[in-house]
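Collaborator request, handled under Task 6.
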Amino acid sequence: MKYIRSPIIVVMGHVDHGKTTLLDSIRNTRVALKESGRITQMVGASYVPNSIIKELGKDLTKKMGIDLIIPGLLFVDTPGHEAFTSLRERGGSIADLTILVVDINEGFKPQTVESIRILKENKVPFVIAANKIDLIDGWKSQNTYSLFESLSNQRENVKQRLDEKIYSLIGELSYYNLTGERFDRIQDFTKEVAIIPISAKSKEGLAELLILISGLSQKYLKDRLYITQEKAKGTILELKDVKGMGNVIDVILYDGILHVGDKILFPTIEGIKETKIRSLFQAKGDGYEHKKSISAAAGIRIFAPNLDKAIPGSPFGVKGGIDRKELEKHIHILTNELDEGVVVKADSLGSLEALKKLLNEKNINISKMGIGTITNDDLLFARNTKTKVILAFNIPIKKEILSNQDVKIIWNNVIYKIVEMYEEYTKELEERKKKMIEKIGSPVKIKVLEGYFFRISKPAIFGIKILEGKLQDNTILMNKEGKILGSIKGIQKDGANIKIAEQGDEVAISMDKIILGKDINANDILYSYLNNEILNQFEDSNLVKEIKRILIKKKIKDI
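Structure tokens returned to the collaborator:
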């Protein structure tokens, strides 16, 4: 049997630009319209049926030349980046179309830019909902869902202000090699990004928005929307522990029909797991309704045994209807660990993939990746890495975790901001290291030359050879037992004072607090004294390891 499913719509945009308000407005249209057709609140999604869209549109469908054949629209309720990146099929997004919400008065912000980058990378079509037109100077909100009807009641200077703000958005789109235009002025929707002025608060423009995305979905994505297979496939949004039931998964079903009793496959960090569905649920009012079977596209809750290791953001499917090898690819991202690098934690597998890609582009190594909040095990692991850094995207972090002194935690809800913050942090470390080296020196190993004792003490002046590293003024020296001998007060090479001596140089140095023949003898091997905190700023070379061993032996001896 061949039938057409509802398009899956994801709402994205910068914080406070109106994503949640828009979703709330869409959900509440049934109440305002007093329609018998209902907008179903599904698990992780809201379903707007064809009847509601037609009622909202009325004459608009004829005016815009759209004949609605899709059964409705499925809006993913989790607004923002995390929802989009968690919805994937075969490495690409299963979102059919995206509404990018932009405050028409503020224009593009960091999360707007990130959303555009993600949409372009995944080749997902999108429209811009230019929100908050009710805040345009002089705008008088009308009791209508129609933008056209509202515009007919606005003064000419207000219409002009609206156009100016739209042209500003068109200009911002051009920075990203995109062409945009107000939706009713577009000749070819495949070449231009449609901008729909709306007010999520007053609901003006909501009719045009729903009609347009319905029309665009069925015109340009029609083949994608046809379901021809019976066996279901979907994406896991969230793993939850529900009182009285145990573990359940909230999912988006994007293909086929799911039945109670179906055996489903899903990836875990331990491999591909199989389980049998015991119950299916759809949200209804304040509770949940049992279902024997559910067709795509839908947001649903699944109860089954052995779900405790399911990975949020990963695909699942009915046994025999999904490729096991494809599922195994999603496990690899969580098990690909390097000896050196940062620890990465995120809210979903999709977010991890997006962050991993950005870090790889910047040649930033990753030691370990995981989903969910930062644990004490993560801190312990990060403590033993060279970077001692955890990058966290869009996850809750406990105060006691943040207050730790040993690991740097960099958190943000904008992925590229995390990378920028890490780069800034590494620059700060480099600057700190540079100043530290200028003040106390870097790792160095020297040999005291026989026959070159020029002055025994106060200050002692003698010849040395640089075996490894660099020697500079103020370097504190210790012997091979870890005894601190004092700091260098001057370096001379060929009779001239110098600041730094390189590996292989033979130079004369002066020190205040030692006596030659007593504290230092000919052929002695000496090292720069640096504590572990300072040593950790340098590459883990053989010299650094040698100095660390001396310090450890000295510490054990002193106990």
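The cover message to the collaborator said: "The first strand starts at residue 3 and ends at 4. The CA atoms of residues 37 and 51 lie 6 Å apart. Please let us know whether this matches your experimental observations."
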